Amino acid sequence: MSLSEGLSAWIGEVAGGRPGPLIPLSGATSADVFGVEVAGLQLVVKHFVFPAFVDEEPDRAIHEAEILDHVAAHSTLPVPRIVAVDPDGSRSGAPAVLMTRLEGSGGLTAVTPAALEQLADRAAEIHDIPIRGVRWRHERYNQPESAFVPSWATDAGLWREAFERAAVDQPYDPVFIHRDYHPGNVLWREGTATGVVDWLYACVGPAGEDFGRVVVNLALQFGTIAAGEFVALIGSHHAPFWTLACWMDWLPFDKGAGAVEAWGADGERSAYEALLHLIMQSRS
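Above: the chain sequence. Below: its structure as tokens.
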């Protein structure tokens, strides 16, 4: 039995009907994600088939399932509901999560004041979810000691200043965070946010992490003007230190000098450095 056949057989067993074809969905990096219809229900299955990601966190499927149950129990946020979990892949060939499918598609096509407000409001709702019972804690992806100034940087002094500033974590009030919150993990339909997805990194951590990731993603996709508008909108909720940490996370410092030197086209590198200027100007 092939991997896809095993996955389909498991879906049919746990969902109580014969599944339709598995339709690949784009946007995921840690798993294969498919849309599938079972007995008239529109579902999504996330199949963790990449060994490197599973080795890094063997309980990825359990992590996302527990978090989605927690969010559903303690908020009115529109999130997928869990149908079934194969924690270790013993039934579907790899760890898997089967969940309901929400309306909308991931990613903004244009930045509007209404869209920015919805991003800020959804983040605030996430941070209001209680942390009791959440097992996972925030850890930075890239440690400052692994960072260095790549040869393509145009302002090496500013990079070094940024690394020094990021070297010591700032204290924070622990809240529930999505940990990968950005416009691509919010579903949209005609300019309205219809749901929040991809919760497998959610944990207890700093609220500034979620806001900072929005700033980084807006800057790299739409430019620093859009990012600056979001910073102005959230006001005191913006924590420049955590936005700087998110900026550092974007480069593959953990994969070595070769990966960093090869990263990005010229336009991406320019946008990345422009974002650094924005962050350092708003430092606190």
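The two ends are 57 Å apart (CA to CA).
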